[in-house]
Amino acid sequence: MGIIEAFKLDRKSNLPKAMLLLVAFGTGIAGMGILTSGAPPIQTAMFISQATKHDITWLHWFIYGMPFSIVMGLVLLWLVLRFFPVDNEKLAGGDEVIREQLAKLGPLTGKEIKLLIIMLLTIVLWATGKVLHPLDSSTVAILAVVAMFFPGINVAGWKELAGKVNWGTLMLLGAAISLGQWLLKSGAAAWVAKNTIVALGVDKWPFLLMIAAGGLFFSIFALAFSARSAAVAALVPTAIGFAQGLSIPGLSVWGMTLILYYTIQFSVILPVNTPMSMVAYSTDTFSSDEMLRVGVPLVLIAVLLMVLFTATYWHWMGVI
Fold it and tell me: What are the residues whose beta carbons fall under 8 Å from the beta carbon of 248, sequence distance 6 or more?
């Protein structure tokens, strides 16, 4: 929005429309490659660890998901530019406007430099977790917050941060995690998944067809949730039960669960499907019909790419 306002662009023109559609869809796609990009990937890694005793580090999550995320990002860019071409649109003022906006911001302050250092160190520690040191992603995140309060650093005070925290979101996340754990521990998710497998005879299907059908199934059901955390809490335990119920020798339960989790991240076709798409839609730059025009082919292409990656890259990496 800063770019749109700085260059005084018409919000209904294709350039603002394309930028905000990339935001609406891109946040979920990016989350497939970065473990700490939000609550859903962290929840998923936790559920997988609890059910299968297989821990996925930040680096391994990146290795498994980022190639798929990049390809999906390119597909998204192609679809957006195909439906909303921006070839003839120009930014009035160009570099001069950008320099003016940077001048208004002024140089980095001492606190901003300290925060930048903390963030860079946090990313390095995340990327090297369980490889160069024993700390997991959650511990690193807590240490980063503590560092901001540390004497001599003082990037922010507790009262300042506490007043800006959305406690309702934390309560929602806690409830979603509790629901997912209950579905796992009670066996409810496994029961639903196994009865579905028996009823449809899924375990007798060719494996890649099974992945495609599972991808479509979880994609459709993910659309019923407006919060990805809630979708993960309900669907990831079901995916674990689904994988455990298949009588396939040597099947990686954690790997199949991870692949099916990706469908939750890219299943977005309407503004109400995620909080991020709602925020992008609230800018009044695109309509729900325009989002649908990009979202439907994006989901279908994503499922096909998921099958391709299962047969190639993820198989080579030992995920499935």
Answer: 203, 207
